[in-house]
Amino acid sequence: MKPEIAFTRELQKICPKIKDYCMGFYIHTCPKMRYKGNFSPSYLLCPETYTWHPIEKCRPLLDINKYSRFEQDRSKEDENAVTDLNDVSILFKRGVIPYGQYRQLKGNSDKAEVEEYASLVGKKCIEKLFLYRSS
């Protein structure tokens, strides 16, 4: 038995409230990782909508393409996505301003970087963080 599975079972004995365990990355083409899918139930996270899907439904998609969207409903999107860059707070010259105001002062040169930051941080965290800009 893999050490992480034994560890998880021990944790569950100590704290029965633990119902789920994230085994980290799953690389479909790596034989050493395929054991992760042999434990039931196993779910994979859709890389576009961040929703969980049974591995049995994901495997055929991964057999065809190593990058696959698991969510079949094309209208579903990441609910945690930042849709308005003005939601990004910029820490600039010892003050906090919305990104739109910062852009008026400094231009659009960092727009792609701020978009990437917003997509990585997500809507829930963006309200609590400041993106530092020195100039």
From TrEMBL:
Domain N-end rule aminoacyl transferase C-terminal: 4-46
Single GO molecular function: arginyl-tRNA--protein transferase activity
Domain of life: Eukaryota
InterPro entries named among the record's database cross-references: N-end_Aminoacyl_Trfase (IPR030700), N-end_Aminoacyl_Trfase_C (IPR007472)
Protein's name according to its UniProt entry: N-end rule aminoacyl transferase C-terminal domain-containing protein
Species assigned in the record: Ixodes scapularis (Black-legged tick)
